[in-house]
Design a protein that fits this description.
single chain; 2 domains; mainly alpha; flat
Amino acid sequence: MELIQQFITHNQQMIYIVILMIFVGIEVIGRVPSVLHTPLMSGANAIHGVVIIGAIIVMGKADPSDYIALILGFLAVILGTLNVVGGFVVTDRMLEMFNKKK
């Protein structure tokens, strides 16, 4: 318990920034019209390739005994990959709507 409390006090500013990012993200996404939501989100998901590269760098630089960094890096790679693939799938489905029917 003391370790968790020490982590929170050491990273207090970062925790505040993450909480504020959550509220700002909800407000921004909530104000996007539904017509623009799919193309906007598919493009944003494709940008998550940067997350994958960053996670790979974190995992490569992490100490082999630092399990928290390795686990978080692995989760970031998996979730970022799912997000990238999902973005391309949504974009593909969206582009199929504009094809002429045979």
